[in-house]
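Form 7-S
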Amino acid sequence: MTRQDTVPRATPRGRLALEDLRTAVADGRVQTVLLAVVDAQGRAKGKAYDAQFFLDRLVDGDGAGEMCAYVFATDIEMTPLTGFELTGWQAGYGDVRLAPDLGSVRLLPWLPRTAMVFADAIGADEQPVPIAPTAILRRQIEALASRGLTVKAGLETEFVLYQGTLAQAAATAFRGLRPVTADNRDYALDHPRELVRYTAKLTAALAGAGHPVEAVKTEGAPGQVEVTFPYGEPVAACEQHVLLKHAARAVGERMRLLPTFMAAPADRVASGLHLHVSLWQGEEAVLADRERPGELSELGRQVVAGLLEGLPELSPLYAPNVNSYKRYRPHSFAPTWFTWGWDNRSCAVRVVGHGSGLHLEIRLPGADANPYLALAAVLAAARRGIEGGLKPPAATTGDGYRDHADAAVPTTLREALRLFEASTLAGDLLGPEVVAHYASLAQAELRVHDARVTDVELACGFAQT
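Output:
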């Protein structure tokens, strides 16, 4: 089962319409097709197919791509977990089928003669697997579309780039790593040669895959880089982030440089995944007030109110790891309270832009977030505000890290999980099946960390003897 109806009429550089893929396969420019789904952690997972086999069997024939359903129910180390309705030993760890989205074909310049195609995971009922990240996001997009609203999104991603290879870092238990820059290079235009070469190769690779970047800048932490993609269609925005991580690792490996998308890869270092979001009716942006330039419309205020009410109970979707919560520290540029403000980077929701370009920047997700789940949580909370006709509190001015009457951002995954599991709102917005699945993943993450002895425990313990 393929989704040929989604093939765009015109394709940008690096993107291939189906006939272009056939031509590229016939003349040998494409020999391998990676058929990929996005797993719970936001990574591309799948199989590498011979390109002609892919066309003959999965596109033109009656063949189907398949993979073990456990891909959607593992921890970051791909450990098979229990406690999931979708898959497990009780179900024999069966397969899901993959429906290629033939509108998502693109070349991967960092892999020779290779194209990638994203796919939907299809269950036994011939419907998309409901807990798959792509399916969760599409349901939220469709729910807003039923109200006549379309979504545009743009992502800003921060990551830290270190010297050396993954094998070298693992050999030292990821301690003593040296960032590619040794100081604060925020907004700097003078960079070490190897960083200039890395960012040039990375941006060229992404452009060659059909995802040109808008801008690249260095950030405040040593070795920290931010990549911003152009504003556009929300599913494509999430695909860009997945491909960025894939390309960043591949380009780094060739240059003996190692990127990490951890939310807090070192003490006092925080890497975010900022979501820029707006809503539209046809060609008209609707978050800005048409009669009062520079103000939020009534719908815009409802969206802000929905975000502040809903996001506190949805944290495991945009902060899924124990490490995610070490980013939320005062004056870290990551929020500590569920507040909103005008062009205020200390708030969870920042209103930014001018005129019809007025939009919301949600600063809660870290670089480790699955973009599909994070954006789905944002759209679900926005929908709650619209449907409930909610009104936001007063905007925060000045230092948003001072004490507030607003809800505090959870400081641990355990606290966030309690809110998520107890929330009736989460079930109403996302469905109880989604809540149960991602609560089980959060529980598994906690079990892993609860069973491991940390360096801090060792240092303190030996200091006592």
